[in-house]
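Entry 12.
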Amino acid sequence: MIPFSILDLSPIPQGATAADALRNSLDLARHAEAWGYNRFWLAEHHNMPGIASAATSVVIGHVAGGTKTIRVGSGGIMLPNHSPLVIAEQFGTLASLFPGRIDLGLGRAPGTDQPTMRALRRNTASASDNFPQDVEELQSYFEPAASDQRIRAYPGIGLRVPIWLLGSSLFGAELAADLGLPFAFASHFAPADMMQAVQLYRRHFKPSRQLARPYVMLGLNVIAAETDAQARYLFTSVQQSFTNLRRGTPGQIPPPIDDIDSYWSPQEKASASMTLLCSVVGSPETVERGLLKFIEVTQPDELITTAHIYDHSARLRSFELLSQFSGLANQLNARTIHATATAD
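Predicted 3D structure (tokens):
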């Protein structure tokens, strides 16, 4: 059975507040736990009026404290914005509070624009260039301390918090393979290099203390509703949000609209369609077909799904419907076995 997980950015709908969004995230996580989702990840973005998860480690603590069994983590922490020691201390604290439930996903992108990067008070050029060294430094803080080690993470030492590398290009795939770490690819907004990155990662993977064999998790936009028309209507909030981002006018999550083609130009439609290529939108039957096709083509070890839906109740319903398909890998395997037996 292929695990299904959730990536949540604590989206802030138009007319709502960050407090509303954070309450909604916890509510979704509690439902996700009951529905059998594997992980609930939150992502670091800055200067984004529609995202409430900027202080990602704080929100992870909020969600983990309000749930009992589901894994909670970062998808991801943008390491160039931080010192490795600070992140080790934060996630060492989280792992001490919630043993066996915390994941640390790391990204190389800043998660924001150039002026905000400067406001974060980091030398962004050197921080990005030093990403591989920073990852290894961060790993070292979670190992048992050496006798001559002067700088230690308290808490953090010896906890071996599971580290993931995130990527939207080949760089992350290469580094994850070299370090023997699990790899999550952001195909939900950067599908172009997905297949090449997965192949590269699996081909060059080196076993490590954390991981014996390659493990790939792929991002996918999934919006499910009772009918195809209803799901497409809900999806217009995502389409508007990406269009606004490209226009340089990011905002809160807009309500869905009846005619998305009246909102964007043909060029904007083409750009958004390419960005959101890895999306499954529709009724339960349509979603099942889309998921089976995606899994058959990509062969992921896990799926992490996201849904920027304006109405919280509709978002809950979408993830509830999706949870019913977590056995799709078994269906796919059974279908393949049947086809092989028939051919024989």
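Annotation: The mean pLDDT is 92. DSSP finds 13 helices and nine strands in the chain.
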